Amino acid sequence: MRNVLISFIGTGPLNSSRDYKTAKYFFKDEDKIHESSFIASALGEFLNIDTYYLFGTMKSIWEAVYLNFAKENKDEDYAFKLYESASNSNYNTELDNALFKDIELLLGSDSKIIPIYYGINEKQIEKNFEIFADALKNLQNDDNIYLDITHSFRSLPLFATTAISFIQDVATKRVTLKGIYYGMLEVNNEFDNKTPIIDLSYIINLQNWIKGAYAFSSFGKGEKIAELMKEEDEISAEKVLDFSNVLSFNYVHELKSQINILTSLSKHEYSYLAKLIVPIVFSDFTKRFIHCKQQSEYQFELCKWQFEKKMYALSCLCLIE
């Protein structure tokens, strides 16, 4: 299991030297400072990063990246070669992965420098997503992914989060997006010239609840919601799993009691995110059965729900029973 940091490299401040301003970064603990012009370096220390995936255009300040991580063992000729290449690059420049092999070796642990396009038109946007997806296929099962969105074009982190979701949910890699981080240089004057690294992991939690809500509403699959509920109410989580199993196995004779349980769960007190999701998705299902009294009425209503969700085999089986 590795800790992998995905970070973005821009071109530095507009109308200024090709380097980011040195900042005194702190993360949670204000007394622990990492001074660097690259937040990737600070996060590497704070999060015990093993492997770096650095994305940027051909015009990004790769020479500054190299000089920052090389420390004393600097090859000035190689740094100048990176600078010269960037200076002659623009939005149309072809990508050249070979140019960055020395930086990859410097970072070690199968780290990667991945050049991308500006994303100036639909063709480049499509190509960038392909580059992101291909790069993330190199992740290993059980890798922990940390995403830094501080530098570079603001559009690029959107591709990264989407590509990570693709790898997790479609390409079936067992990787986990553990955190999203932003170095808030704009407020360092309020922290004695120190720059806070903001943890935006709340966004991940929100995305997970949305995925859980979709799975439950569309297919009656409660595993994701149960997993999230378990952190605040283990008993409720088990009840959701029981309900999901009843639907999966088409145990129609247990449906009435399970709906009563689900109705009671929708009235529990939850954290804010859970409160946004749980009552809505649960009541959307249970309200269909409000006027049912006989077991046969419950079964017929379930049959209709399954048909609407295109679960035709289960709907037919339920109708026969």
Describe this protein's structure.
With 321 residues, the chain is of the alpha/beta class. The protein has helices at 39-46, 62-70, 76-87, 101-107, 122-136, 156-169, 202-219, 223-229, 234-248, 255-265, 272-286, 295-308, 312-320, and strands at residues 3-9, 23-27, 29-36, 51-56, 112-115, 144-148, 176-183, 195-199. Strand 6 (144-148), helix 6 and strand 7 (176-183) form a beta-alpha-beta unit. The chain is elongated and about 80 Å long.
Helices and strands, with pairings:
Elements: E1 3-9, E2 23-27, E3 29-36, H1 39-46, E4 51-56, H2 62-70, H3 76-87, H4 101-107, E5 112-115, H5 122-136, E6 144-148, H6 156-169, E7 176-183, E8 195-199, H7 202-219, H8 223-229, H9 234-248, H10 255-265, H11 272-286, H12 295-308, H13 312-320
Parallel strand pairs: 1-4, 1-6, 2-8, 4-5, 6-7
Antiparallel strand pairs: 2-3, 7-8
Helix pairs in contact: 2-3, 5-6, 7-8, 7-11, 8-9, 9-10, 10-11, 12-13
Give a quick rundown of the structure.
This protein is of the alpha/beta class and 321 residues long. The protein contains 13 helices and eight strands. It has helices at 39-46, 62-70, 76-87, 101-107, 122-136, 156-169, 202-219, 223-229, 234-248, 255-265, 272-286, 295-308, 312-320; strands at 3-9, 23-27, 29-36, 51-56, 112-115, 144-148, 176-183, 195-199.
